[in-house]
């Protein structure tokens, strides 16, 4: 039996580390046969922290018996140089892309720490916070107030991924995303809840394979009618029938990541 290849990966940043992590993930997912242990080192903003990071990376390499992989998004060149002295395979996002882009544009970049995520005073940041608050207040049909402010309204049976997708749209894109569950009463009535009728253009549906929904619901409420495979099949069939009848665009979330679902929603509703 073949032994799984294991490597440790560090994401090092002078900010939250989310950019480094996103870059690294997009590359690491291409290597399905390798098991990656991932470690984030955020807010590296002085020499002492850089030296500590090097020591930590080197210690991990010694423990693994193999040098770690390091993704960095460090604007400060002095700090970047220190980190790159580690006994590791280092990939710098800014060295790889920023210098060639400066050459192409003929303009020097601002080299501002944390620029990729903006500051707490920026309008984009404030918009995202407002969107997150709105989305939390409109989760799972808690309220139907202020739906005219929503950028998108997700509809689906329970446990199809409405909440995580809504939060991702709010956090990543600053969109106000409400979500409503489709329940047996809606199926008996044969139409959408009245509160959603006038916002039809904002609706987007999610569905899922009944077997997968059964598995998810069993973890939440084992051996219940709610989680039974027969009920899951019924609810999915009725929800899809309703979405087809009402002309609601929808997709199957069974094998798709939140990123893929969100990108599809943005394209279908022309939100980006």
3D architecture notes:
By secondary structure, this protein is of the alpha/beta class. It folds into 2 domains: about 5-115, Rossmann fold, CATH 3.40.50; about 125-270, Rossmann fold (3-Layer(aba) Sandwich), CATH 3.40.50. The chain is about 45% helix and about 15% strand. It is built from 11 helices and 8 strands. The protein has helices at about 20-30, 45-65, 75-85, 95-105, 125-135, 160-175, 185-190, 195, 210-220, 230-245, 260-270, and strands spanning about 5-15, 35-40, 70-75, 90, 150-155, 175-180, 205, 250. It has a 4-stranded parallel β-sheet with strand order 2-1-3-4, with helices on both faces. A 4-stranded parallel β-sheet has the order 6-5-7-8, with helices on both faces. Strand 3 (about 70-75), helix 3 and strand 4 (about 90) form a beta-alpha-beta unit. Helix 2 (about 45-65) runs parallel beside helix 3. The longest helix has 18 residues, at about 45-65. The N and C termini lie far apart (about 45 Å).
Mean pLDDT: 89
Shape: elongated
Q: What's the level 1 CATH class of the largest domain? A: Alpha Beta
Strand content bin: 15-25%
Which structural category do the helix and sheet elements fall into? alpha/beta
How far apart are the termini?
47 Å
Label the CATH architecture of the largest domain. Answer: 3-Layer(aba) Sandwich
N to C succession of SSEs? EHEHEHEHHEHEHHEHHEH
Please tell me the total number of domains.
2
CATH topology category name of the largest domain: Rossmann fold
Major sheet details: 4 strands, parallel
Task: Give the helix proportion (percent range).
Answer: 40-55%
Number of helices: 11
Question: Which consecutive residue ranges, at least 5 long each, have pLDDT under 50?
Answer: none
Q: What is the radius of gyration?
A: 23 Å
Strand sequence of the main sheet, in spatial order? 2-1-3-4
Count of strand segments: 8
């Amino acid at each position: 039996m073949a032994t799984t290849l294991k490597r440790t990966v560090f994401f090092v940043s002078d900010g939250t580390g989310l950019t480094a992590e996103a870059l690294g993930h997009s590359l690491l997912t291409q290597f399905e046969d390798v098991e990656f242990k991932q470690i984030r080192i955020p807010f590296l903003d002085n020499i002492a922290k850089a030296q500590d990071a090097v020591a930590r990376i080197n210690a991990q390499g010694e423990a693994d018996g193999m040098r770690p992989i390091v993704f960095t998004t460090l604007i400060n060149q002095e700090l970047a140089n220190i980190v790159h002295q580690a006994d590791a395979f280092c990939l710098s996002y800014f060295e790889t892309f920023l210098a060639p882009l400066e050459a192409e544009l003929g303009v020097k970049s601002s080299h501002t720490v944390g620029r990729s995520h903006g500051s707490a005073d920026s309008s984009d940041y404030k918009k995202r916070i407002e969107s997150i608050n709105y989305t939390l207040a409109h989760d799972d049909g808690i309220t139907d107030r202020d739906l005219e402010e929503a950028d998108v309204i997700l509809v689906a049976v329970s446990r199809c991924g409405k909440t995580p997708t809504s939060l991702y749209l709010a956090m990543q894109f600053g969109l106000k995303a409400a979500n409503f569950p489709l329940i047996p009463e809606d199926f008996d009535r044969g139409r959408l809840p009245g509160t959603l009728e006038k916002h039809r253009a904002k609706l987007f549906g999610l569905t899922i394979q009944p077997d997968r929904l059964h598995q998810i619901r069993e973890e939440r409420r084992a051996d219940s009618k709610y989680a039974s495979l027969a009920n899951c099949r019924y609810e999915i069939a009725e929800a899809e029938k309703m979405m087809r009848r009402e002309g609601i665009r929808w997709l199957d979330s069974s094998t798709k990541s939140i990123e893929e679902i969100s990108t599809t929603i943005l394209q279908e509703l022309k939100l980006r």
